[in-house]
Amino acid sequence: MLAVASGKGGTGKTLVATNMASVAGEVQLVDCDAEEPNVHLFIKPIETEGVIPVTLSLPQIDE
Length: 63
Known about the structure:
The chain is an all-alpha fold. 24% of the residues lie in helices and 0% in strands.
């Protein structure tokens, strides 16, 4: 298991993760970015039987 993480946006996490996944053979790549999931822009996912998209709503915070 490998995680590519950073607290700052725009640092290349998705680029690094998708490139590593593309050369690693058989992998499961999970995009856990709740605000800007972009892995689908870099690769075309292959859906297999039993795989379903997982989505969640971001909570709204009253100021």
